[in-house]
Design brief:
Shape: globular
Distance between the termini: 68 Å
Length: about 325
């Protein structure tokens, strides 16, 4: 016997998605009909106000774990099927070579068949526009593009369609949090839904984190995430970071997660940064010539009246066959 919630058929998909988001759907047992109702196996003794009952439910069949073994594409394209994807909450975000785009729905459905934790699959065609959001569309699954993502003890609402979010930066977020000293003033110039501020607030004790984004919806997500995580030292601000930062108190640490054009805002960041303070700037650079690019940045800031020292350069992720996203830890001296 398996414990199940008993819900009207028309509510079935909604409740199933809620259970997935809550981590309470029992995927080892099948959903089955019960007259005008359906029985959905659960991993808890209750769920909301729904009726819970024991039922004789069939176990699910063992699943293939590699979607590439299930997907139906021409043989000459199988070798370019993506071997990785981003997981944001219960959403998978995949990038495809152009040759595979017409098979996107087939690929998405195959991934859903092999992953218990994925509710929907989206195709990503890159970051675009002033709001730097991903150009994504749903290719398989159900529900909206908003999801709940967890990392390092933080739970946050994110929406990859409306606000930029990169789950691959979780280790970098924790690294910066570990560097923060008590009572620092921190500014995140391009905060999105505030993943950097949230992880920092959870694991260190800054006096204030000014969390800026020009995207109004990002600011709304920030506010919801601040309330959800019960933190009181993050200040959400909607506006142009280059203008907002002029009105803020001097910062001990500034985060610049805008890899396409972050260096064009470095002058604004340094104007706010205390002497001895640090900027964590993300930038896309050619892997063969990033040393030259670092020298260029140092020389350019010197011409603008700022002496800087680059203490650390580290590769964060691959961007293209020849380029990667790097983080530069820049000290104002």
């Amino acid at each position: 016997m398996v414990l199940c919630v008993r819900v009207k058929k028309e509510k079935g998909e909604e409740v199933r998605n809620d259970l997935i988001r809550s981590g309470l759907l029992n995927r080892d047992a099948k959903i089955r009909a019960d007259g005008d109702f359906i029985l959905i196996p659960i991993l808890s003794s209750s769920f909301g106000n729904y009726e819970v009952k024991d039922a004789d439910i069939e176990p699910t069949d063992r699943k293939e774990t590699d979607y590439r073994n299930l997907v139906n594409v021409p043989d000459d394209l199988k070798n370019i099927l993506p071997n990785s994807y981003d997981t944001i909450g219960d959403i998978a975000v995949m990038k495809f070579p152009e040759e595979l785009e017409e098979y996107a729905e087939t690929i998405g459905n195959a991934l859903l068949m092999t992953s218990r934790s994925i509710r929907a699959v989206m195709m990503d065609t890159g970051v675009k526009g002033e709001m730097r959001v991903r150009d994504v569309r749903m290719i398989a699954g159900t529900g909206t593009s908003e999801t709940m993502h967890k990392e390092f003890g933080v739970t946050m609402f994110v929406d990859p369609v409306k606000v930029y979010f990169n789950p691959r930066l979780s280790t970098e977020r924790m690294r910066i949090a570990s560097l923060v000293k008590d009572n620092e003033v921190i500014t995140d110039m391009f905060a999105g839904a505030a993943p950097f501020p949230l992880v920092i607030a959870k694991h260190s004790k800054p006096s204030a984190i000014y969390s800026i984004d020009i995207n109004e919806y990002a600011t709304e997500l920030m506010k919801r995430n601040i309330e959800l995580n019960k933190v009181n030292n993050i200040v959400p601000i909607c506006g142009d970071a280059s203008e907002v930062i002029k009105k803020l108190p001097p910062s001990d640490r500034i985060i610049m997660n805008l890899p396409q054009i972050a260096d064009s805002f470095l002058n604004d960041a340094l104007s706010n940064l205390k002497n001895g303070g640090m900027v964590h700037m993300h930038k896309i650079m050619d892997r063969e010539s990033f040393d030259n690019e670092s020298l260029r940045i140092t020389d350019e800031m010197k011409k603008k009246g700022y002496d800087i020292r680059i203490d650390r350069i580290a590769e964060l992720k691959t961007y293209s066959p020849t380029m990667s996203v790097y983080v530069l830890d820049i000290v104002k001296v």
